Predict the structure.
Amino acid sequence: MRTIASSIKIDHRLKIHPILPIKDRKAISFTFNGQILSAFEGEVVTTALYASGIRVFGHHTRDGAPQGIFCVNGQCSQCMVLVNGRIVKGCMTAVEEGMRIESCEGSPALPPDDLAEEFSDCDEIEIDVLVIGAGPAGINAAVELGNLGIKVLLVDDKDEPGGKLTLQTHPFFGSRDDCYAGTRGIDIAGIMTGQLAELKTVTVLTGTTAVGVFSDKKIGLYQNDRYFLAQPKVVLVACGAREKALAFPGCDLPGVYGAGAFQTLLNRDMVKPAERLFVVGGGNVGLIAGYHAIQAGIKVVGLVEALPRCGGYKVHLDKLKRLGVPVYTSHSILSAEGKGNLEKITISAVDDRFRPVKGTEKSFDVDTLLIAVGLSPVDELSKKLKIFGIESYSCGDSEEIAEASAAIFSGKITGRKIARSLGYDIEIPAEWEKTQEILRSRPGAVAAFEPEDPGSDIFPVLRCIEEIPCNPCVDSCPHSSILIPGESIMGLPVFSGDCTGCMKCVASCPALAITLVKRGSDGGKSQVVIPYELLVDDLREGDPVRTVDLEGYPVGEGRIVKIRRSPGDKKRSLVTIEVPDDDALLVAGLAALESEDGKEGIPLEESIPDDTVICRCERITAGEIRSEIRAGVRDMNILKATIRTGMGACAGKTCTDLILNLYRSEGVDISDVTLPTDRPFVSEVPLSAFAGLKSRKKDLD
């Protein structure tokens, strides 16, 4: 057995956070490779190990490569460990007092063959509606159905409902009336789960995975070593999305993982998983993850986006820029390096065909690289439901990738559609479809920021210059002085009317895009109130500060006058600074980070060299796959049978798109490629559970 760590002295748990409370939790002990460590009750294995500074959980049997985390969502197989002699996914297994955890080194011995003391039949349940996924879409659909008295079974593989809402510390966009805009995701999760708890006809099973759809119209479910079947009249798939992977040299190093995994460790589990972090991808997922990192005191060294413009909301991008994060558009990750863990990354500019441009390479010392290059719907169950003729629906990201606000509303509509299919006479207002379309909208046109001084002593400055669905500022103003022209919340807000300085608009804006200007009586100085969601412990009244504009460019100098909690949202601070009159309309924030330029990097001869790992589970390289493609293989099932791509625990969820990219790079028309066949089970089920084994030998308990 290889020893992963000989001593653990560093505690990587968060001690303070500007948004999240630090809760008291019961401490328990466990062992990892014989070393006694501590965890909090309810934590999963990967979190407990990360909190103790352990990022490498084992080594792959094929080439001895170190294995760490990647998705922390049960979708990949990077975090496999031995728990009391059984192979499990560390991110889906809760730590228990006295648990014996070991790294996977080589092939573990099979358990003895005399485990069975008693077998049981497979339980079956009949239900009106089975909802798979207790995220925002699934919960809202279940609430709509439960309010009508329809019997619903809502299952989710996590230990609590809420989905990705439980990771989002920022206020949501959209409409206040339709999807809780202006409320933080973590608080929306509490509101929605509270609604669930009041419904008598909705049964919620957490820690339960839907693992297969069968031709006899039954659905296989797995929970706590128990396998059972559900036979619903209707199935709703609301499983959300999984993060896309990216292939480049070093992409498989521990320390390179998805943005969702990072948010899980940071915002759900209160573990600080990085010190120096770089983000790949300028969509909302990457932009928000970068901001969450800064809130936790992590240095965000930079962000790259291959397109000429970041695809996420500009207001999210501007928050990062104001805090001093360099953003490199028309750039991408070139390589990652490190001995056992990530230590350095190299980026470069890319041309209009996304090929690296030699001579533009820059290297940065980092310990974490977040991959946020898009999402794919979790739809393998949906496909089987349709094939077997089971009445089914999809909503949220399982139907169409969009913002969580859209998923909330999508669940509401779909719940009513299902009720109608069951014979209930319930209205679906015509305007709901239009609202859903708006909430799913991509960002629209960007206007120039041209602030005007209304000539009054006090007024807000609105920096929403990109069309996105959002209206909390309109609802917040007690004088109705902020309006969105037209009928759609996609319009840009304008200020016209009276302002009494109540600061409710500053407090309510999800984007931190509104400041309040108070003109001074002496004609030389003004006060600007800015929203602030970082720790304020280092800020003092009277301190000088450097001010920045909308996109983070320097404006000048200011002085802190007052720091207070905002009305209506005690997790946000309002910082009043005194600035020269001429700066007042421009000042949007305070400079917080020092940016880094990086060092000259080394170019690659090929963007994806042959030794780049494509299939993480089986450690299959780009070169091995290219050889098969060049030999004429056009069926990915043959790849699976010959070189084992897709044979691992993730069942091709991570590598399929990467293999298709290799086909494209070899000049193969994708329409000529046969995709791998999806079969049950879509997630692992121990044979003991499938066989109905009720008890095991004590030494394996």
